[in-house]
Amino acid sequence: MKKKQVGIFSGSFNPVHTGHLILANYLLEFTSLDEIWLVVSPHNPIKEADSLLDEKIRLEMARLAVEEFDRLLVSDIEFCMPKPSYTIDTLTRLRSENPDVEFTLVIGSDNWRKFPRWKEHQRLIEEFRILIYPRPGEEVGADRPLPENVQLIDAPIVEISSTFIRESIRMGKNMRAFLPAQVYDYILSNGLYR
Ligand SMILES: Nc1ncnc2c1ncn2[C@@H]1O[C@H](COP(=O)(O)OP(=O)(O)OP(=O)(O)O)[C@@H](O)[C@H]1O
Ligand SMILES: O=C(O)c1ccc[n+]([C@@H]2O[C@H](COP(=O)([O-])O)[C@@H](O)[C@H]2O)c1
Question: Which residues touch 40 (CB under 8 Å, ≥6 apart)?
Fold first, then answer.
């Protein structure tokens, strides 16, 4: 029987925004992936932890964001794993807990550039299919050719970042169209990022 195809889209999601959802929506409709799992990472190994909102709050926002999508799910698997969150450990664990699923790692071209710094990046390439989607100013393939099971996809580029949203909210700007409505309402009612 053909295994269920699941794309792993992991990140800090501080907060999750419309750019993330547009990409996930695109992957579900225009690739062979059956589901996308947003994996909320408590601590990205190459990001400063002090700018991060509490992991449970980021998880709650991710859950609110996917409410209206039935093939987009949220995973907190990294919450009970050692920190910082290494993707090879997460994928290895997901694979052993879900033998009926084939996992594909979905990463942005910004992360592909930094990929040689990731833990056991060679094993990640050998054991998992990787989809790279374009991020502004981050060209792929110019510096090193793509391995066979690494594929560049032609997803639309949406130039929104969590950093821009956090800074704008701090300045008192109205950012309603940049985030799912439930997430923006949650941020306002809890006074987050002020
Ligand atoms: N606008 C976007 N469109 C598609 N993917 C995105 C977008 N913004 C971020 N991503 C990707 O989503 C994943 C999780 O993103 P992350 O939580 O780091 O968001 P971010 O907006 O890049 O955050 P920050 O500004 O805090 O660095 C990463 O792989 C990142 O490349
Ligand atoms: O495994 C690694 O060595 C590794 C190094 C850098 C980033 N990652 C993961 O890549 C994901 C994207 O990170 P971010 O912060 O750009 O959203 C997030 O889940 C990180 O834990 C993983």
Answer: 10, 11, 12, 13, 55, 58, 59, 62, 74, 75, 76, 78, 79
Here the tokens at position 29 are: 């409709």
Tell me the ligand closest to 13's alpha carbon.
1
Domain count, the chain: 1
Q: Is residue 172 part of a domain?
A: no
| CATH code for the domain of 13 | 3.40.50.620
Residue 90 belongs to a domain: yes
ipTM over 0.85: yes
Domain extent at residue 139: 4-157
pTM score of the predicted model: 0.95
| Ligand 2 contact, 162 CB (< 6 A) | no
Residue 11 CA to ligand 1 center (angstroms) comes to 7
Amino acid found at 137:
G
111 lines ligand 2 (CB under 6 A): yes
Ligand 1 binding pocket includes 40 (Cβ within 6 Å): no
Condensed to tens digits (0 to 9), the pLDDT of residues 49-80 reads 667 899 999 999 999 999 999 999 999 999 99
Structural domain contains residue 42: yes
